[in-house]
Model the fold of this input.
Amino acid sequence: MDKLNNEKLKELIRTIPDFPEPGILFRDITTALKDKEGLKLIIDDFTERYKDKGIDYVLGADARGFIFGAAIAYNIGAGFVPARKVGKLPAETVRADYSLEYGKNSIEIHKDAFEKDANVLIVDDLLATGGTAKAMVELVEELGAKVYELAFLIELEDLNARNILEGKSVYSILKY
Done:
């Protein structure tokens, strides 16, 4: 994304201090999503980056990764797979546990989500500590598929999440 559009998109994202806990600066993307130009900038940027790359599936993290992931998958001709919180998927699942900025959680995907050696793009709204992203990488690899890249709208650079994703390609539209 060019610098002008990058700055415009940053202006559309609201920052809320002390949410969900004191000391956290929450980057609220709902203000960018409700703006038709903002949403288009985001989806167009991801689509341009990933079209014609041989991606078989887009894996989107619950819940905001679903917003981007499904649109990207549709635009690039890939399937969409939701990575859900525990207990939300009806068929047999695989699970990975992870730590967040402010707690712990687990994520699951269906055991039959990918074919062996499928190319998978992992998408989420935010890269903070990297816990969710690392858990999603583990799930993809456990099923014998390959991570093409991890894509995020926002990356919080001070938290150094790329360190725990070493060896994986990471793309972020916006960095704070």
User: Anything to note?
Assistant: Strands lie at 14-17, 25-28, 57-61, 79-85, 93-100, 103-110, 119-127, 146-155, 170-175. The chain has a mean pLDDT of 96. The longest strand covers residues 146-155. The two ends are 15 Å apart (CA to CA).
